[in-house]
Design goal:
Tumour Suppressor Smad4, four-stranded antiparallel sheet, globular, 22% helix, binds zinc ion, six-stranded antiparallel sheet, alpha+beta
Amino acid sequence: MDPSRDDNRPSAIVQQYWAIYPRFLQDLFVQAFVAGAHHPGQRVTEGQWIKAMDRLRDGMVTCRGCGATGFWDLAEPDRTCRACGTSLAPPYVLKIGRRTVAVSPLATLRTDHLASGVDDSVVVGQVRAHPQDATRWGLHNLSTRPWEATYGAGQVVRLEPDRTMEISDGMRIAVDSATVLATRWQGA
Ligand SMILES: [Zn+2]
């Protein structure tokens, strides 16, 4: 899709999908298939695509209004659901190094979050919505090792495998050699 030409637009359904994706991914497609079409040096590398897909996955959320899947992104925090207009801003974000995971029922913590260059990523944690209270969220330890969580006030607790703990603002969780920091996102 060349933004400067309207003689080769994709079909309407493709254009609808286009709008679902965050700007960073649209920019990458334009770079690859518009600039890169004639200038191979400007094409997107495999590493850039992998980073972009990781970022897309980290922002994948379930709309609180209608349940549709949408993509939130740190660079576009005001994104709204294409289906119903509800804000896609997550209640919390989980920061691990340079990655930011939006808390939603679709969010997982994986080995590619904990270290770079992981090819066969494995899920080690799963975000869970509280069954009764929509404002409360948990993180479930799916790994075989205990995690150590430190609450904002300093209290330290151990999260054993197959257990869930509530996510709270300022909580740090040591997962292997990485640290996951939970932060409340505004407007949630
Ligand atoms: Zn919606």
